Amino acid sequence: MIRAVLFDFDGTLADTAPDLGHALNRQRIARGLSELSIAQIRPLASAGSRGLLGLGFNIKPGDTGYESMRDEFLNFYTQRLCHDTCLFPGVGELLDELEKRNLPWGIVTNKPARFTHPLIETLGLAQRVACVVCGDELANTKPHPEPLLTASTKIAISPAHCIYLGDDIRDVQASLAAGMQPIVARYGYLGNDQPPETWGARYLIDHPKELLAYL
């Protein structure tokens, strides 16, 4: 029996790609490069600064100049954190229904706390969410199971009774390692070379409200 639902944030609960993309394009314009389209940006948005800087500048952690580029990107993102970011269509209704059924819901994300908590507040979720676990709060991030197990402890519900909904292969890997039921948000960013059908999740959904069928 499912007693709680946990969500990834970027690409699952909230569409943050427009504001993340704005920060990346601001960097590109400053260097005389053309803007990337939202269609190009969206698949890499769940990978945060690492994925987007790789897309925009073919640079990766450890490369010369990466840290300064990352700091600039995060500074630009902070300045426009929730301008175009919004909940995915249907997420609001899904959360309403979970609360009607007295099912707690939480957020487990690799996104740092300094971005996650202001977004949750601005989106009107801070007083509703049962727990929030951010990427810089623990020793390990997804795909390690520690963040999901920490969330399970916070809400005092066994992992076996939790669903984890995410849009990245790391979400499925973390969920399986934690002993939770993974479901793939096929409406999300899906920034991986492997099709989501091959990630190891039994269920995939194309709209947030489809999750209700698995409760």
Account of the 3D structure:
There is one protein chain. The chain is α/β, with parallel strands linked by helices and 215 residues long. The protein has 2 domains: 142 residues, 3-Layer(aba) Sandwich (Rossmann fold); 63 residues. The chain is built from 8 helices and 8 strands; from the N terminus they run ββααααβαβαβαβαββ. The strands form 2 sheets. It has a 6-stranded parallel beta sheet. Strands 2-3 form a two-stranded antiparallel ribbon. α1 crosses α3 and α1 crosses α4. It starts with a strand and ends in a 10-residue tail after the last strand.
Defining traits:
single chain; 215 residues; alpha/beta; Rossmann fold; 6-stranded parallel β-sheet; two-stranded antiparallel ribbon; 8 helices; 38% helix; 13% strand; globular
Sheet having the most strands? 6 strands, parallel
CATH class of the largest domain: Alpha Beta
Report helical residue fraction: 25-40%
Per DSSP E runs of 2 or more residues, the count of β-strands stands at 8
Rg (CA only):
17 Å
Structural class: alpha/beta
Note the overall shape: globular
Distance between the termini: 7 Å
Spell the H/E element sequence: EEHHHHEHEHEHEHEE
| Low-pLDDT runs | none
What is the annotated CATH architecture of the largest domain? 3-Layer(aba) Sandwich
CATH homologous superfamily of the largest domain, by name? HAD superfamily/HAD-like
- What is the residue-mean pLDDT, rounded to a whole number? 97
What strand order characterises the main sheet?
Answer: 5-4-1-6-7-8
CATH topology (level 3) name of the largest domain:
Rossmann fold
Number of DSSP helices?
Answer: 8
- Beta strand %: 5-15%
Count of structural domains: 2
